[in-house]
Amino acid sequence: MSVVIALAGNPNAGKTTLFNELTGARQQVGNYPGVTVEKKQGICVSEAGTFEIIDLPGTYSLTAYSLEEVVARDYLVNEKPDMVVNIVDASNLERNLYLSVQFMEMGIPVCLALNMMDVAQKRGIEIDVDRLSELLGIPVVPMVARTGKGKKELLAQVAKGIDKPASPLFISYGQDIDKALDEMEEIIEENHFLTDIYPARWVGLKYFENDTQILELGATRDQETADKLMDIGEKLQRHMSATLDVHPEGMIADQRYGFINSVLKQNVIRFAYDRNRLQ
Ligand code: GDP
Ligand code: K
Ligand code: MG
């Protein structure tokens, strides 16, 4: 059985460039089943091993707001690739990591390809790659996909990371949401509610995010448990709207960015000034 690597990232992070760099002429283009979203696959033959590479649709998030997001998510949970290589734009790290933390919350093994290092450097953005890797608990490889720089190291890290199970990233969403999530998690675990597919806490989060796909799937599987979760979700929604004038959905996005910023602030990123201009 071949090792399957899914390439994922925000639009314009350099996914196609890296895909071409890895697979060369060994490419095949089709569609994801049932939809008109393009699916590219290819084979990467390297010193580190032979990998099957799947190009996932470019997305900013993993909710169910767009067809691309649903396709990417379905692929990840149904096909279970051995690893996600998440290509991020190093010159726009905060924004790009929003998707990365969502892979990590799903418990999917991720390797971060920190692309556009040339652009970041030109803009005076310095990134402590080792520190970022340590704080996120995943491999991080600096790259310039356009020139192929970092490709060898990326493949070495991918080979090293295969078969290493990832535990889902835990982000605190604040007292109100965390408490409701704990309550949901217990019900979800007790009833084995979608836990064959997703981590329990992630399922709970989707009820707060009003994720139509998960809500429908859950109701089809086990209406009684789904109703219980809906009740908890609605109760929290009412409480938060009344006391904080926010929706859980907005709070979840805010806290994800909060988590990302707390990582970046720990000496991961530095914006160097152009000294010549100051003189
Ligand atoms: P995708 O939308 O993620 O598939 O991104 P593309 O691979 O199409 O890349 C978007 C643009 O960024 C293209 O013009 C690429 O040539 C360029 N690009 C990709 N990687 C790099 C890089 O490391 N450095 C620089 N400067 N440009 C890059
Ligand atoms: K593009
Ligand atoms: Mg592309």
UniProtKB/TrEMBL annotation:
<feature type="binding site">
    <location>
        <begin position="115"/>
        <end position="118"/>
    </location>
    <ligand>
        <name>GTP</name>
    </ligand>
</feature>
<feature type="binding site">
    <location>
        <position position="24"/>
    </location>
    <ligand>
        <name>Mg(2+)</name>
    </ligand>
</feature>
<feature type="binding site">
    <location>
        <begin position="9"/>
        <end position="16"/>
    </location>
    <ligand>
        <name>GTP</name>
    </ligand>
</feature>
<feature type="binding site">
    <location>
        <begin position="55"/>
        <end position="58"/>
    </location>
    <ligand>
        <name>GTP</name>
    </ligand>
</feature>
<feature type="binding site">
    <location>
        <begin position="34"/>
        <end position="38"/>
    </location>
    <ligand>
        <name>GTP</name>
    </ligand>
</feature>
<comment type="function">
    <text>Probable transporter of a GTP-driven Fe(2+) uptake system.</text>
</comment>
<comment type="similarity">
    <text>Belongs to the TRAFAC class TrmE-Era-EngA-EngB-Septin-like GTPase superfamily. FeoB GTPase (TC 9.A.8) family.</text>
</comment>
<feature type="binding site">
    <location>
        <position position="23"/>
    </location>
    <ligand>
        <name>Mg(2+)</name>
    </ligand>
</feature>
<feature type="binding site">
    <location>
        <position position="20"/>
    </location>
    <ligand>
        <name>Mg(2+)</name>
    </ligand>
</feature>
<protein>
    <recommendedName>
        <fullName>Ferrous iron transport protein B</fullName>
    </recommendedName>
</protein>
<feature type="domain" description="FeoB-type G">
    <location>
        <begin position="2"/>
        <end position="164"/>
    </location>
</feature>
